[in-house]
Write a structure and sequence with these properties.
Blueprint (H helix, E strand, L loop, with lengths): L4 H14 L8 H9 L3 E6 L2 E6 L11 E2 L4 E2 L11 H8 L4 E6 L3 E8 L2 E6 L6 H10 L3 H7 L3 E8 L18 E9 L8 H10 L7 E5 L5 H13 L4 E6 L6 E4 L1 H11 L9 H16 L4 H22 L4 E8 L2 H13 L3 E10 L2 E9 L1 H11 L7
Antiparallel strand pairs: 1-2, 2-3, 3-4, 5-10, 5-11, 6-7, 6-8, 8-9, 11-12, 13-15, 14-15
Helix pairs in contact: 4-11, 8-9, 8-10
Length: 384
């Protein structure tokens, strides 16, 4: 085991003895998972949490557990590249089309008397934990009635600390969009019809939901919806059956272009495969949506190159500036600790209390991207 992990594993063993979802696998099996680096621990308040850093049997990466609960990681959903054939291949009637909001995924749960937010990878998110009350004020009542459910949300908007892209219809701050309720332990999703009733009962914000649809009869309606989302600068759609069954997602041409715009300057920080996949998606977008071909042809060059050229011309480091607000200063300090853990380099530009919030402006610095482009300008070569 990792150094100092014997005592941690003893705590895990005490959890295993009382948590039925951990006991479906033997203690020896979990010990091997620790040795392979699949299980990591972290503290928040008086609790020691464990998270899965990698998939383990039926539990996906991002799964979180303590002594009396287990929150499965949010499952990865296949992405289709061609709408018409993808719909008929994976879906049957009835299914719903739910807006895929551009932001980052969190799961909200109640632990004792506190509502906490966890990221897809299972990290506690200090920002979402701090801000949910501003946007989902009925959650305490929800968890009183449904303590066995996890609330799955997208945090989106121009003032979030992680993602530089955001929906065009959010002009400031952020919002929380509830898109699923998931059972503790099992990871089963609440059926769509029941989800809609819960959203209405507790007045929760949610992405736009259309349907039900038939994959063949309603292809034209769905295509029209995708086109509208493209022109409205929305990310895409997640297609969901009423209850059990395959879910799939599809993103708009706009979203693929926007992804390329955001990441291209930061080559060196990301896997180049990220870029090639977006280009493949975009080609197949154009094969199906001829209406946007000329628009994409006119924008793709400036989108890919102008920001990089600007950085190179000014010889400045590659960086992004974020502006966020917190209810508590301690939440920002917790976010700084998270950045240190994730080895993200930031520079704090400004902090101030204003209108009841602690406002922070900070810059994320990308040294690998800076070195990547600088080395090319200095004449260094590489074998390709």
């Amino acid at each position: 085991m990792r150094e100092g992990s014997k005592e941690i594993f003893e705590i895990f063993e005490s959890y295993w003895k009382i948590n039925p979802y951990l006991k479906i696998y033997s203690l020896e099996d979990w010990e091997k998972a620790f040795e392979k680096g699949k299980v990591w621990s972290f503290s928040w308040g008086n609790n020691l949490f464990f998270r899965l850093n990698k998939d383990h049997h039926i539990y996906p990466a991002g799964t979180i557990f303590i002594n009396n609960l287990l929150v499965p990681g949010y499952p990865h959903i296949p992405r289709i590249y061609f709408l018409k054939t993808g719909l008929s291949r994976y879906l049957s009637y009835p299914f719903y089309a739910e807006e895929k909001v551009e932001g980052y995924n969190v799961r909200l749960i109640r632990v004792e008397d506190e509502i906490l937010a966890f990221t897809r990878r299972g990290y506690l998110c200090p920002f979402a934990t701090d801000r949910w009350i501003d946007f989902l004020p009925t959650l305490p009542q929800f968890f009183e009635e449904y303590p066995h459910l996890t609330v799955c949300c997208e945090v989106a908007g121009p003032e979030n600390p992680f993602v530089s892209e955001s929906p065009s219809y959010i002009k400031e701050d952020v919002n929380f969009f509830v898109f699923d309720f998931m059972e503790m332990g099992t990871g089963k999703f609440v059926p769509i019809s029941q989800k809609l009733k819960l959203i209405e009962k507790f007045n929760l914000n949610t992405p736009e939901i259309k349907g039900p649809f038939d994959p063949i009869k309603d292809y034209k309606k769905i295509k029209e919806l995708i086109l509208r989302y493209h022109y409205e600068k929305r990310e895409g759609i997640v297609f969901k059956p009423e209850s059990e069954g395959q879910r799939i997602k599809y993103v708009t041409p706009f979203s693929n272009v926007e992804d390329l715009r955001v990441v291209f300057p930061y080559l060196g920080e990301i896997d180049p495969h990220f870029v090639s996949l977006r280009l493949i998606r975009l080609v197949l977008n154009l094969a199906e949506f001829q209406e946007v071909k000329e628009e994409i042809y006119q924008t793709i060059g400036p989108v890919l190159f102008e920001e990089v050229l600007s950085f190179l011309k000014d010889e400045k480091p590659f960086q992004e500036t974020f502006r966020v607000r917190f209810r508590k200063e301690s939440s920002f300090l917790a976010l700084l600790a998270h950045f240190r853990l994730a080895k993200i380099t930031i520079e704090i530009k400004k902090t101030e209390w204003k209108d009841g919030y602690f406002w922070v402006e900070f810059t994320k610095i990308y040294p690998k991207a800076t070195h990547f482009w600088k080395s090319k300008l200095e004449g260094w070569g590489e074998v390709d």
